[in-house]
Amino acid sequence: MSNHLRELAEYGFVQEDPERGRGRERWWVAPQPVWIPREGLSPEAQAEASGLHPRPLAEALEGFERFRAARGSMGEWGRGTWVVGRTRLTLTLEEATQLIADQQELISRYQRDTADAPSGARTVVLAFLAYPEPPPGH
């Protein structure tokens, strides 16, 4: 497993989280969401790249509940304008693909290593879920 993680780190897919590791234990995080275009991939690789897992969403919701419980003691950070929303868009497949690519590009403009963050900066969690609505009756 360590060899695989080091290889993923070499290409920027994961990075070590030094704040969480203790002793020989190492934690890894994805520095940014990864958009993998499926064009040109084998059917097996497409299925793997599309592996949708509900755990990250559940973790984001749990984190949001912790924020809601603590926001009264978080000063200005607790009083900020934080967003929970849901929007339905009617898009072509090409538009949906471009929307996700644009969203990834926007997020990447704000990403930086924690060590490079200015004084007073805090981690802000941005959870993004995009999926086509199934046809009625499914």
Can you describe this structure?
The chain has 138 residues and is mainly alpha-helical. The chain has two domains: 1-31, no CATH class; 34-75 and 87-112 and 121-131, no CATH class. The chain is 39% helix and 3% strand. The chain is built from five helices and two strands, in the order αββαααα. It has a two-stranded antiparallel sheet with strand order 1-2. The termini are far apart. The mean pLDDT is 80.
How is the topology of this model organized?
Layout: H1 2-10, E1 15-16, E2 28-29, H2 43-49, H3 55-70, H4 76-79, H5 93-110
Antiparallel strand pairs: 1-2
Question: Concise description?
Answer:
The protein is mostly helical and 138 residues long. It has helices spanning 2-10, 43-49, 55-70, 76-79, 93-110, and strands at 15-16, 28-29.
